[in-house]
């Protein structure tokens, strides 16, 4: 299946689909730093483009003849962090994505975003555009820790197929979920050399210390050091802060299930933001494998325990 990745970022979704046997033929984005990282890690071409120019981008994609368009339009305007104003501008790229898919009309599309998008008018508008183009759609919010990712990260997924009924692939997705959340220790074993670590809380009413025997909290686009005056929170699973540290940039990328040899470059700030914005690689693989099972008619439950 030939795949084009829109808003490809540093390539988490591309790599996930590639690992599931998909043929990624091109990536598109408009962020120079992410494009530089993408080029370092993939052999197929990646293009810098203004993805709000629906007509121009659609023409370029049509020349590639994809069976599937995947992508995660920028989610900051829908995020639980910040002002959460869907009309700040970046939310319009969700509409651009829908219009590109509706123009090119591949057999399939997959759109990934933050869970909060379900409350927005932008999503409703995008779905109207896609339905008018002939797509049946399945939407759900997936917990990445049930999809082979050692992280409690909830993401909205919208899968469309031309001329299909709505909810056509829902059971395949749900039957594939693990019965157990994946912990950091499940994924890394003892490779990290720690039992507990610090993750800066959004509010001081929340804890900041986490055990490797639970999923990581959501990897965000910043990685702050532990304040010297941090005081133990009642929810912290330790009685002392001795030896506690934040995860390194590399460790954070691996919690996002990027492989150890994935090459990141750029300023620390930009790399941390890329990692936090990325789709976990294994979540991409989970979605792609469900799609392939549906396409081949394999309805066997793939539920697993870890």
Annotate the secondary structure layout.
Layout lengths: L1 E5 L5 H8 L3 E7 L2 H10 L4 E3 L5 H11 L3 E4 L20 H13 L3 E7 L6 H12 L2 E9 L7 E2 L1 E9 L7 H6 L8 H5 L7 E3 L10 E3 L4 E2 L31 H7 L12 H10 L3 H16 L10
Parallel strand pairs: 1-2, 1-4, 2-3, 4-5, 7-11
Antiparallel strand pairs: 5-8, 6-8, 9-10
Can you characterise this structure?
By secondary structure, this protein is α/β, with parallel strands linked by helices. The protein has a domain of 199 residues: Rossmann fold (3-Layer(aba) Sandwich), CATH 3.40.50.150. The protein is built from 10 helices and 11 strands. The strands form 3 sheets. A 7-stranded mixed beta sheet has the order 3-2-1-4-5-8-6, sandwiched between helices. Strands 7-11 form a two-stranded parallel ribbon. It has a two-stranded antiparallel sheet with strand order 9-10. α2 links the parallel β2 and β3. α1 packs across α10 and α3 crosses α4. The longest helix has 16 residues. The protein is globular. It starts with a strand and ends in a 10-residue tail after the last helix.
């Amino acid at each position: 299946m030939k795949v084009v990745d829109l808003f490809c970022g540093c390539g988490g979704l591309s790599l996930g689909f590639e690992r599931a046997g998909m043929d990624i033929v091109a990536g598109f984005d408009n962020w120079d730093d992410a494009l530089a990282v993408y080029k370092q890690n993939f052999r197929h071409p990646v293009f810098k483009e203004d993805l709000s120019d629906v007509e121009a981008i659609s023409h370029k994609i049509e020349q590639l003849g994809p069976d599937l368009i995947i992508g995660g339009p920028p989610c900051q305007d829908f995020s639980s962090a910040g002002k959460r104003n869907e009309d700040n501008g970046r939310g319009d790229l969700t509409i651009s994505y829908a219009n590109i898919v509706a123009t090119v009309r591949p057999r399939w599309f997959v759109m990934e975003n933050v869970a909060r998008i379900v409350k927005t008018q932008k999503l409703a508008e995008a779905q109207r555009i896609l339905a008018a183009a002939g797509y049946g759609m399945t939407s759900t919010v997936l917990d990445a820790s049930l999809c082979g990712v050692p992280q409690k990260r909830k993401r909205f997924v919208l899968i469309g197929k031309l001329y299909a009924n709505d909810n056509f692939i829902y059971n395949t997705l749900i039957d594939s979920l693990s019965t157990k959340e994946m912990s950091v220790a499940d994924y890394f074993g003892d490779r990290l050399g720690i039992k507990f670590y610090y993750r800066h809380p959004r509010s001081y009413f929340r804890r900041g210390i986490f055990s490797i025997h639970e999923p990581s909290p959501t990897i965000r686009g910043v990685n702050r050091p532990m304040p010297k005056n941090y005081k133990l929170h009642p929810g912290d699973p330790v009685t002392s802060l001795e030896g506690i540290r934040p995860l390194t940039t590399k460790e954070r990328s691996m919690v996002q299930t990027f492989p150890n040899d994935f090459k990141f470059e750029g300023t620390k700030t930009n790399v941390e933001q890329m990692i936090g914005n990325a789709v976990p690689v294994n979540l991409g693989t989970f979605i792609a494998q469900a799609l392939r099972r549906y396409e081949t008619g394999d309805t066997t439950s793939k539920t697993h325990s870890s």
